[in-house]
Amino acid sequence: MFVLHALAQAAAAVVVPATGPFLTAEIRTRDAAFFSAFFERCDRQVVAAYLTPDFEIYHDKGGKLAGGAAVFLDDYMKSCTAAAKPDGWRHRRELVEPSLRVEAVPGFGAIEEGDHDFYEGKGDGPKRKVGTAHFVQLWQRAPDGWRLTRVFSYSHRKTP
């Protein structure tokens, strides 16, 4: 019985690249793809593929915004519907590149930390920078890719 349990744990273990340029580049790529799908394309299917079922997000202005990917995605699609209207507010998020730090979590994934800028505009009009915030994201490495499991977004400050 012990041998079967040990074999199951070994099969479930994931290999996480060591902290360094390769891991940072890998997480940076996933971060960009996730936020592009999230803010710029409102692509529920792609966003869902980046989330663990128990996904949670904590926000210093809105509190706990999601307890599970399904709830988060339902709320997300409501905001996408509003943004799709001709005069809807549309958003974009940009990573503040020099602030990015990525650390490996052996056997699990990675912690990503940094700052991000937010832009918004009405309809198809130009977007202007409206604020900056700090974030910490916990990524889980699964056999089929990286998934966000926890997000903390805080220290939001408006652009003057």
Task: Explain the overall architecture.
- This protein is α+β, with helices and mostly antiparallel strands and 160 residues long.
- It has 4 helices and 7 strands.
- Strands 1, 2, 3, 4, 5, 6 and 7 form a 7-stranded mixed beta sheet that branches.
- It is globular, with a radius of gyration of 17 Å.
- Mean pLDDT is 89; it is low at 1-11.
Mean pLDDT: 89
Percentage of β-strand residues: 35-45%
N-to-C SSE series?
Answer: HHHEEHEEEEE
The separation of the N and C termini measures 63 Å
Quick tags:
alpha+beta; single chain; 4 helices; 43% strand; 160 residues; disordered N terminus; seven-stranded mixed sheet
List the helices and strands and how they pair.
Elements lengths: L1 H11 L8 H21 L2 H6 L1 E9 L3 E5 L1 H16 L4 E7 L5 E5 L3 E14 L5 E15 L2 E14 L2
Parallel strand pairs: 1-7
Antiparallel strand pairs: 1-2, 3-5, 4-5, 5-6, 6-7
